[in-house]
Amino acid sequence: MWIDTHCHLDAAEFDADRDAVASAAQAAGVSRIVIPAVARENFSTVRALAHGTEGAVYALGIHPLYTPHARDDDLDVLRHEIEASLDDPCFVGIGEIGLDYFVPGLDEARQQRFYDAQLRLAREFGLPAICHVRKSQDQVLKGLRRNGVTSGIAHAFNGSFQQARAFIDQGMHLGFGGNLTFERALQIRRLAQQLPLEAIVMETDAPDIPPAWLYRERNTPDQVPRIGTVLAGLRGLSPEELALGTTANAAVALPRLALSSA
């Protein structure tokens, strides 16, 4: 059994064949798919999709790339949606939130304000945070420390070994996906090989971050087992051992996964 801890199954790229994509993931052994929200406008979409898709769950949050068009009262809406979702077994946490220092032109102060506000919600409600950390690992980590958030996932992690250790010490798990399948991605491959297995969860970020064999094509959640096989080979494990370990790790990172499987 595999878990895709980060998949934007609601994305427009899946409009033509979403059900088939989800079914293919189940057939490939991906029993759970975590669908994070990115903006107020898709809170209800990811919730409905999780309820209508076998094995799917959802998180609620405002992505840093969506902060330019987010309104201040979106945070009030998010609070209301969290409160309304606490009894929902398909709801697993706050995400996708974080900071992005890669895309030019984003207001860093505005990103930070939305990030901190959402971290405070995560702490208040005792929920894990699914964090976007592109070129922003240190500042994302500072936010976690400052706001007392000690569980969740650093999605698509691509920092240094020292930064990885700091996230792990904070209680976070690190998400690895298609990037590690590229032989030239030396840093990510070293991290995936050398970090404690207990710190690693699998993800696709589908439809983005496709593995090497789908370069510049649409990524899909059914790719998790093949990506996992590459990672298992790097670590000298069988795919079955890696699937067992990373699935257990996902349950630690996102404890409410147990509710949706009960």
UniProtKB/TrEMBL annotation:
<protein>
    <submittedName>
        <fullName>TatD DNase family protein</fullName>
        <ecNumber>3.1.21.-</ecNumber>
    </submittedName>
</protein>
<dbReference type="InterPro" id="IPR032466">
    <property type="entry name" value="Metal_Hydrolase"/>
</dbReference>
<dbReference type="InterPro" id="IPR018228">
    <property type="entry name" value="DNase_TatD-rel_CS"/>
</dbReference>
<keyword id="KW-0378">Hydrolase</keyword>
<dbReference type="InterPro" id="IPR001130">
    <property type="entry name" value="TatD-like"/>
</dbReference>
<comment type="similarity">
    <text>Belongs to the metallo-dependent hydrolases superfamily. TatD-type hydrolase family.</text>
</comment>
<dbReference type="GO" id="GO:0016787">
    <property type="term" value="F:hydrolase activity"/>
</dbReference>
<dbReference type="Pfam" id="PF01026">
    <property type="entry name" value="TatD_DNase"/>
</dbReference>
